[in-house]
Amino acid sequence: MHIRKVRGPRTVQLPDGGYLSRGDLPPPTTKRWVASRKATVVKAVRFGLISLEEACNLYDLTRDEYSSWQTAVARHGESALRATALKKYRQFDQ
C-alpha cells in the first residue's frame, strides 16, 4: 500500500476516545451529502484533521455552507443535518 504525504495529522482522537482518520472522510467526488458525511467533515475540521480551507476546496463547499453545517451540529446535534429535518430545526434558528 502506498501512503501519500499529506500536511497535518493522519488521525485525530475524538473526545469520546474514538479516532478519525483521513480514510474516514467522504470521497472528494461526493455528490449526495447525507447527514453522516456532513458530520464527518465538521468533526474533521473541528478536531484539526483538515483545515476549513482544505475542506472547502476538497468538497467544493462555500464557507457559508460549511458554517450552516457546523451551526446545526452545535445547536441541535448531528440529526439536524438531515434534509428531512431542515424545517423542524430552522424554526428554532430564526
From TrEMBL:
InterPro entries listed in its UniProt record: DUF1153, Trp_repressor/repl_initiator, WH-like_DNA-bd_sf
Stretches for region Disordered: 1-26
GO molecular function: sequence-specific DNA binding
Classification via SUPFAM superfamilies: TrpR-like (SSF48295)
Domain of life: Bacteria
Name of the molecule in the record: DUF1153 domain-containing protein
Native source species: Planktomarina temperata RCA23
Taxonomic placement: Bacteria, Pseudomonadati, Pseudomonadota, Alphaproteobacteria, Rhodobacterales
